Amino acid sequence: MSDYDLVIAGGTVVTPAEMFIADVGVKDGKVAAIGFNLRGLRSIDANGLLVMPGGIDSHCHIEQLQEGGGADEETFITGSTAALAGGTTSVVTFSTQFKGGGILQPLADYWRRAEQAMVDYTFHQIITDATDAVIFDEIPQVAAAGIRSLKVFLTYDPLHLDDRQFIRVLAAARRNKMLVTVHCENYEAINWRTAALLADGRTAPKYHAWARPAMIEREATHRAIALAEMVDQPIQVFHVSCPEVAEEIARAKARGLKVWGETCPQYFVLSADHMDRPGFEGAKFMCSPAPRDAAASEGLWTCIRDGVLDIVSSDHSGWSYETPAGKRVNGVDAPFRDIPNGVPGLGSRLAIMFDQAVSKGRMDACAFVRLIATNPAKLFGLYPRKGTIAPGTDADIVLWDPTKSVTLTNALAQHIIDYTPYEGMDVTGWPVMTIRRGQVVMQDGRVQAEPGSGQFLAREPYDLIKPTGNVPNGFDASAFLV
Ligand code: URP
Ligand code: ZN
Ligand code: ZN
Q1: In this structure, which residues have their CB less than 5 angstroms from ion ligand 3?
Q2: Contact assessment for residue 297 and residue 303, using Cβ atoms and an 8 Å cutoff
Q3: Which of 171, 260, 304, 390 could form a disulfide with 478, with the two C-beta atoms 3.0–4.6 Å apart?
Q4: Nearest 5°: phi and psi at 134?
């Protein structure tokens, strides 16, 4: 008699807390039991493999709507393929706002696109124009629809918010029980340095890093934290590039503030030197904040070990190198200011981080699981449905061969993007099977899932992002609709 639809037999189960050899029984898409000698309609031999929760990529740009029509090249179908190939089973992507417009119509349009997904998904709502209608009327509707995170940019034309607008978004998030995620770089400082660099004829991709040094990321991080503290609104700082910036988060955490930090694989394995490749090649490595140097990368590990940085996401960018709308949209002689930012990495996130973290001996597989699945699930209100392996959780599981060595290529990433910045990089540790809600959706690199089989993950209010209740003078200004 079979008690389970599927049994994953004899693997090393990795949870956020411990590792042990056991069978995992799956029924109706959920983990039903962890034990020994379980019997299922189908059994998968996981001997010698790690049995880990499917990755959760809480920061990736997929099919994001573009001003004037159209969307990123990476679609929900191709992005899902890359995710599942790489062992990721849930994503958080971005619904956007265009200045002068609202958020509900683009959200409806974007949601229709997302219904093609083959991974489970939810959204961050980007706010680029904090009008009264958005702040007082539309954000409450977005929260009611189960979207519990907002995203703001403190730099980039035309996305950035000034301090007043940012404070209004923080207050709206507090009223509506949402988390705010922040791109922290100083807008004016970048513009000033960029103007000077261009005036001096320094236009090549490598000057992207010169235009946005670490202290301007640190300044914006400090300011974001201070304003969030004033409003008493929890925030997550996106894509922290170096320890100097993480120090601001460490100080906030030490003072009991609800501030979390994310970093990305590119800040461990790329550096500013990559942008100094001949010709236009450096554009392949341009992202913001800019990758720094080897010492900064090594320092990020201490920040992770100390609990200062909580999450490693991909910040996957949905644009190619060769296509007319991608990196060369303004021509191959475009100054760095006019080259689109962002690097792809949805499919390679787990492999790079497993190699760097576990294979290279910096941390154990439990800590790896926390970084790429458990902490994103907790911070974005998906835990315990997602992010761990335990009875009652969704059976989102990646079977991982910790001994398999692979040289990364663009084809292996399985995204639609025409390049990977990680081409030729050797990694040890590789996903051999991905299971999403009990269904095998990737085996030995072959992704098989129906478009539309991903589920939207509606998020209720959750305790982790409750404000602390500490406001200056005991006066809660966010209660006033100003
Ligand atoms: O360079 C980056 N990170 N591009 C993607 C958009 C963002 O800033 O997150
Ligand atoms: Zn950003
Ligand atoms: Zn991003």
Answers
A1: 315
A2: no
A3: 171
A4: -70, -50
